[in-house]
Amino acid sequence: MAQLILNHLSKDFGTGRAAVSDVSLTVREGGFLALLGPSGCGKTTVLRMVAGFEQPTDGSIILGERTLADGSGALPPEKRNMAMVFQSYALWPHMTVAQNVGYPLKVRGVTGAAWETRVRDALSVVRLEEFAARRPADLSGGQRQRVALARCLVTSPDVVLLDEPLANLDRHLKAAMEETFREFHARSGATMIYVTHDQGEAMALATDIAVMSEGRLIQVASPQEIYARPEGRIVGGLVGQGGILDLALPDQGPRLVPWPAIEAAFRQTAGPSRPVLVRPEHVVADPQGIMLEVRSCVFEGERFALSLRTAGGQSLKAYSATATATGSLQPFVIRQGWLV
Ligand SMILES: Nc1ncnc2c1ncn2[C@@H]1O[C@H](COP(=O)(O)OP(=O)(O)OP(=O)(O)O)[C@@H](O)[C@H]1O
């Protein structure tokens, strides 16, 4: 196991716009990095360059002491000791679970007792020991995905690459599989890179999130950090819930904006404005607050989600323990905001 370094990595397919531009980041040994961003931002291209399926146009990829790719050449995928899990599980239908999991070992010439032991160990990581003799057709979607995970683990890869592995699953199965992935990461100790456009998934799974937009890396930080202190509108809008208000705030001042400054900004009608991200948990009903229109109130099980609108027509979100009449004007305090 070793840390993975992407150094000024770029990829231009010759389409007029680079798919990946100057991406530099370090995935620490045993880390779980989520590459997050909208469709087409370059996530999969980064993953494919790390795997060795694409050659960088510029920059380098280093794993521990080894250079995997740079200006002078690239190691082929099979020499990188990595494993990739795809959205489609890509299992062989005519093979049993054990044969599917053990296939990469067979290719490497591992047979007999060594084969049996390593397949059993890999199946135990994903808790599928009992299913060794079944065929993929006789498994649920989640179990098939776990077979695919066991198969990538069986060769003890330094790095596991996952390309939207949960995209085809329903919500319940997704939640259960997130748990499996967390456990898989903890038990395998592998360094993992996980491509997703689902911020909830990234927050739930990763130790670090790298947000990309239009081929560029915008921010890399822990889920907590990126939620509390996002860099710019794109990250603020992509990670977590909330609304971005344009408020008349002074040029100087802390990025964490307290309620008195927000309240003062609401009274200010002229002057340049600055974008402030407001999380729903910081918008609370309070008679001392400013009047906001309740645009909608949706029951989410454990709470109600409110869509609110300011007098100036800007949108906000809030949570409430009780139902609130749609169309009514109610006082709310915005406890804090974050300048993005
Ligand atoms: N082989 C290729 N040839 C030309 N352009 C490509 C190729 N592969 C990807 N691209 C382009 O590069 C950009 C980034 O694509 P990429 O698949 O990396 O995005 P992504 O963030 O993974 O998107 P998605 O979430 O939709 O999979 C896109 O504009 C895409 O059209």
Automatic annotation (TrEMBL):
GO terms for molecular function: ABC-type ferric iron transporter activity; ATP binding; ATP hydrolysis activity. It holds the Pfam family ABC_tran. Gene3D superfamilies: P-loop containing nucleotide triphosphate hydrolases. The keyword Transport applies. It is found in: Cell inner membrane. Residues 4-239 form the ABC transporter domain. One of its GO terms (cellular component) is ATP-binding cassette (ABC) transporter complex. Keywords: ATP-binding, Cell membrane, Ion transport, Iron, Iron transport, Membrane, Nucleotide-binding, Transport. It comes from the Bacteria. It is a peripheral membrane protein. Belongs to the ABC transporter superfamily. This is ABC transporter ATP-binding protein. It comes from Pararhizobium polonicum.
